[in-house]
Amino acid sequence: MEIKRSAEELEDNHVMQISGSNGIVHNMEFMSQAYLRNQYSSEIDIHEEFVSPYPHEDAPLPIFLKVPPSLSLFVFCLLSITGYEIHSLVLNLQFEDVEYKVRNIQASLKTMVSKVVTHTNSDPDGYKHILKGITGSTGPGEILALMGPSGSGKTTLLKIMGGRLTDNVKGKLTYNDIPYSPSVKRRIGFVTQDDVLLPQLTVEETLAFAAFLRLPSNMSKEQKYAKVEMIIKELGLERYISCKHSKYFLLETTITRCRHTRVGGGFVKGISGGERKRTSIAYEILVDPSLLLLDEPTSGLDSTSATKLLHILQGVAKAGRTVITTIHQPSSRMFHMFDKLLLISEGHPAYYGKAREAMEYFSSLRILPEIAMNPAEFLLDLATGQVSDISLPEELLATKTTQPDSENVIVKYLQLRYKTDLEPKEKEENHRNRKAPEHLQIAIQVKKDWTLSWWDQFMIIFRRTFRERRRDYFDMLRLVQSLGVAVVLGLLWWKSKTDTEAHLRDQVGLMFYICIFWTSSSLFGAVYVFPFEKIYLVKERKADMYRLSVYYVCSTLCDMVAHVLYPTFFMIIVYFMAGFSRTVPCFVFTVLTILLIAITSQGAGEFLGASVLSIKRAGMIASLVLMMFLLTGGYYVQHIPKFMQWLKYLSFMHYGFRLLLKVQYSADQVFDCASKGGCRTLQSSSSFDTVNLNGGLEELWVLLGMAFGYRLCTYFCLRKKISICHL
Question: Which of 332-341, 427-436, 560-569, 629-638 has the lowest mean pLDDT?
Fold first, then answer.
């Protein structure tokens, strides 16, 4: 049954999709006040001729609800209470006279020098202008392509649209006539040029964890899995075929389930580049963003894979989303798949309009290719001023032959013609036809709260973190290293005794070496964690996937598994081989002290890594800190000069070593009975000149405070650093 409406009524209709707790996807249509002037009740229309964007037979049935705009906010609240989640809001993006500049350090230095030498004021602001007045608009169902040569500002404009660059930005940028705000952020999906995916997770695990974190809590576990399953099939991530062949014959054909293959990347073998790109897109469209931004999605792909990827983006756009992508040099077939095109040259727009009308526009300027040419290649040549095999109007032909910088003249000419011919029309159209209805303005401002509680996020992130890092935790080389060093130390200090001063000194040296080993292992095992995972953390925090506190607590607890497991096995071997005190309390307290030293060292490593978020600098700083802690630990130098004694109070190794001696030895214990002077107490030994073996366990509380303090500082460092990082 189809309700016939007039053209005026259809122009006022605006559609958005909602999903209920039963997993069925609906389309909610808010009608204008003009249409509903005499309507006092809602109606439900089922369109039999609706063309579904889902090609499968189990496609959701669209249901159109006519609701007055005045009741929009009430309907939003009602749907959220009754188990519905609005997940694909219609979004119209408008940008007008967008400018962006960055501080040019070299230019600033030159300005300072010129002021001192010549007292001139050239380039007073010291900024480099990247974008210079970009205007345009796009809406649902459209793919807007941003084209231009390298360095023209495509990615910068895309980041501004996604709210990832906000400083030094001028111009007007609105989403349904509303400026960017945190409520808009979660309706935007951003696919970076480099696929930022955890390499050790499989494709299915990557999407499943994203679904559990980002989809609403009123969806059941089965519904979230079903959505992941649907997207995997839609984007062709079900399986791939690999062939092994000789020079003349096919040897083997293997069909592998792509969904169960690790994503890979860097030095980790995984899926292909095209599959990794489709996984990145699936990661974003999983939550049905209203605006999907993609930065060079076809880079590194062959023509067939790139075309297939663009077909997927067409399906995403037809489902009611707004799609904007940067593209470098697409094939002619891909070029005609774009709805709109924005050509950028040196930060200036050179063309904006329908992609299919680009050639017609430049033909009207009497700029035509003289040979058969890919339209994208033709436009890029114009954007750079390279006009070989391109016919020009007479006013430009003269400059081409007479002026050495004819390329700049051609680029300036195109920019001027855009300013006079196209820009006024686009601005007028934006002001006249692109006014968003009131209910859409209200909808875009509805603040999306966290979809899950802190504890629910913790359980999901903890499982994901452990699954991502478990190969490092249970690495065979790491196990062999720990157990091998333990055996070597046990053999070197086999059945060591404390009957003489020399033997006591040897055993105390073993204690200090154990402190060194687990301090350095834990410190360097933790210092690189956040520098390595910075790009993943920035990406997921920009999308508001989880709270930063959840991520950090899960990270430090998961890593603590390795920092507890290996030292325990290590001490079980060394303790009895080296002949330490064979009493249960001494053994237990010695092991717990080593674990406390390892956990404190882990916190220090996390703090150093989070404070710089740079792999190179973190390693260098960790080496310097470790060296300082070793020297002030209390073994190499016991009597430190007074003006340097403050260093030892910063060293957790100093407190750990003292605590280890206190739990292992007793002040009343005697030794060196065979000497001429007779038996002496351990407290009288020179090895314990600076340690009071009966002085209590205040070092325990200091180490606990340091372990907690380092982690608290790490959290605040991460919070500050991640907030200013950009992808």
Answer: 427-436
Element (H, E) at 71: none
What is the number of residues in the chain?
727
Helices and strands in the chain: count of H runs, count of E runs: 25, 21
pLDDT surpasses 60 at 622: yes
CA nearest to 534, candidates 292, 200, 196: 196
Structure tokens given for 284: 């974003």
pLDDT digits (tens, 9 = 90+) for 281-338: 999 888 888 899 999 988 878 888 888 889 989 988 988 889 999 998 888 889 999 9
Q: Please list, residue by residue across 688-711, b when 16 or more beta carbons sit within 10 angstroms of its beta carbon and e when fewer do.
A: beebebeeeeebbebbeebbeebb
Cα 641 versus chain centre, distance: 48
- Arithmetic mean of pLDDT, 610-616: 91
Enumerate the domain spans of the chain: 93-110+124-244+251-433, 496-724
Strand locations in 46-142 (E): 64-67, 85-88, 93-103, 127-138
Element (H, E) at 243: strand 240-245
Q: Read off the pLDDT of residues 341-353 as tens digits, 9 standing for 90 and up.
A: 999 998 899 999 9
Choose among 2, 54, 9, 3: nearest CA to 30. Answer: 9
The DSSP call for residue 314 is H
* Residue 144 φ/ψ, nearest 5 degrees: -100, 125
- 646: confidence class by pLDDT, cuts 50, 70, 90: confident
User: Residue 685 pLDDT > 70, yes or no?
Assistant: yes
> Which of the pair, 71 or 640, is modelled with greater confidence?
640
Pick the CATH number of 93-110+124-244+251-433 from 3.40.630.10, 3.30.110.10, 3.40.50.300, 3.90.1150.30: 3.40.50.300
What is the C-alpha to C-alpha distance for residues 59 and 65, in angstroms, rounded to an integer?
A: 19
Report the distance separating Cα 503 and Cα 693, nearest Å: 18
Instruction: In whole angstroms, give the CA distance from residue 106 to residue 648.
Output: 43
Contact between 557 and 596 (Cβ < 8 Å)? no
Q: CA-to-CA distance for 227 and 224, rounded, in angstroms?
A: 5
The rounded radius of gyration (Å) of the Cα atoms in the chain is 33
Which residues, at least 6 apart from 171, have a Cβ–Cβ distance to it below 8 Å?
A: 95, 96, 97, 98, 99, 133, 134
- The model's pTM is 0.78
Specify which of 121-125, 236-240, 422-426 reaches the highest per-range mean pLDDT: 422-426
The span from the CA of 458 to the CA of 551, in Å, is 8
Instruction: Tell me the mean pLDDT in the region 90-97.
Output: 86
Amino acid of residue 552: Y
Q: Are 661 and 693 in contact (CB under 8 A)?
A: yes
